[in-house]
Amino acid sequence: MKKLTIALMALISITNLSFAHEVKYEGLNMPESVAEGPDGYIYVSEIGEKDKDRDGKISKIDKKGNITPFATGLFDPKGIVFYKEKLYVTDRDVIIEVNTDGTWSVFGSTMAFPKTPVFLNDIDVDSDGNFYITDTSNFETGGIVFKMNLAGDITVLFDETTENNKAPNGVLLIGNNKLLIVDWGGELFEADTETKKIKKLGEGFPGGDGLAIKNETIYISSWKEGKIYEFKNGKSKVILEGFQAAADIALSKDKTHLIIPDMKAGTVSIYPLK
């Protein structure tokens, strides 16, 4: 049975940052990405069982901690982001658009991509409805970052020919024409979508997965290590550890809480930030 638990800080080792307590939601099936919706609910992509088709879904967690299916019948949903009232999801090699009632359709088909997608991963969106999508590809070299507009037109921003573009995973828009990208190999980059240049900001985040930012502080999840890092002024430190596989994190809309899906543990945890 899926349930909500209030856990003491001892359950997760916390260093260098004070949290009042943890709110943990359990019973999820390979949760990968999270986002707070316009309704204040938390939406979670659940990949489901390995090599099993159409068991992927998006679930929602209401304000009382109840977890219910929202959109079902997906393959392996990963990154999610809201644009206005609709939810957009990377699902293996397509982009899904989910309506407010949970019905969905393919928004960006495989054939619409100028290069055949291999492993669509994270997604973010700007105020004009331009989506930024990572394809981690083989997790070593040759990943791609795509841009897609509301008309469904898709272009390549960065590919295997772009310096410092290897296996992009988490992506986060941080201003006009600027993206933060965390690489699966553990490096953090800032990418300029106009100049098509990518510069390295830091390293040491093995299995880099999710990104969030509050003011000048960047939060980075390490899937391999089960840790959350804080990166500021060129320096990083571990602020949370003890997860089995910290996946694609997010901030609450008011930026007061960090939301962390733990893929292998099947949980989503929420921590208040100072």
Q: What does it look like?
A:
This protein has a five-stranded antiparallel beta sheet with strand order 1-3-26-25-24, with no helix packed on it. It contains no helices and 26 strands. It is globular and about 45 Å long. The chain is an all-beta fold.
Q: Widest sheet: strand order?
A: 1-3-26-25-24
**How many strand elements?**
26
pLDDT < 50 stretches = 6-19
| H/E element order | EEEEEEEEEEEEEEEEEEEEEEEEEE
Any idea what the radius of gyration is? 17 Å
Alpha-carbon distance between the termini?
A: 32 Å
Beta-strand residue fraction: over 45%
Q: What is the helix fraction of residues, given as a range?
A: under 10%
DSSP summary: helix tally = 0
Structural class by secondary-structure content: mainly beta
Fold topology:
Layout: E1 4-7, E2 13-14, E3 22-25, E4 31-36, E5 42-46, E6 56-61, E7 67-74, E8 77-83, E9 86-91, E10 94-98, E11 104-108, E12 120-125, E13 131-135, E14 144-148, E15 154-158, E16 168-175, E17 178-183, E18 187-192, E19 197-203, E20 208-214, E21 217-222, E22 227-232, E23 235-241, E24 250-251, E25 257-262, E26 267-272
Antiparallel strand pairs: 1-3, 2-23, 3-26, 4-5, 5-6, 6-7, 8-9, 9-10, 10-11, 12-13, 13-14, 14-15, 16-17, 17-18, 18-19, 20-21, 21-22, 22-23, 24-25, 25-26
